[in-house]
Amino acid sequence: MQALRPEQYAELRRLVTSWERRYLREAKQQAGFNPRLAADALCFQPLPQDEGGLLVGALITPLSLALMLVPATGSDCPPPGATRWLGLPAGDYPLTPLALDAGDWVWCCVLLDDVTDVSSLEQGSRLAQRLMTSLMTSTTAETS
What are 94's strand-pairing partners? Predict the structure, then answer.
């Protein structure tokens, strides 16, 4: 896995903060809220076969674990209901736009909508790592 540049890490942190400003208060009111978790962008890497510098990784929040694709800087958020399919070695995933705070947005596909049994930030991080490893690895056996 290729290491990200410092400015890419800063952009991911900014997007997580944007999620917190937009959704955290509302999330705390939901029955599935896990107070042991915090929003975080984990296991990001440049999208394979992409020349535009898009990043793909996991977004964990106190409500869910999602596949997230960071759009090109300055791009406009697609309308609600828009779908972008993301082909990864493990399969194709439907992403929908998630509006954040202050005009920010990301493509998202919730893969686990109940994280109430995740007992710590560290366990959430390990879960995200396993998720991304499985998504970035082909599920079909190669034959010779």
Answer: 85
* Residues 71, 106 contacting (CB under 8 angstroms): yes
Backbone φ/ψ region at 103: left (φ over 0), alpha (ψ -120 to 50), beta: left
Class of domain 6-135: alpha beta
Cα separation, 66 vs 95, in Å, equals: 10
Segment 49-102, tens digit of pLDDT: 765 779 999 999 999 999 999 998 888 999 989 999 999 999 999 999 999 998
Strand (E) positions, the chain? 40-46, 55-60, 65-70, 84-88, 91-99, 105-112
Q: Where are the domains of the chain?
A: 6-135
- Alpha-carbon distance of 110 to 88, in angstroms, equals 15
Q: Which of 129, 132, 134, 118 is nearest to 34 (CA)?
A: 118
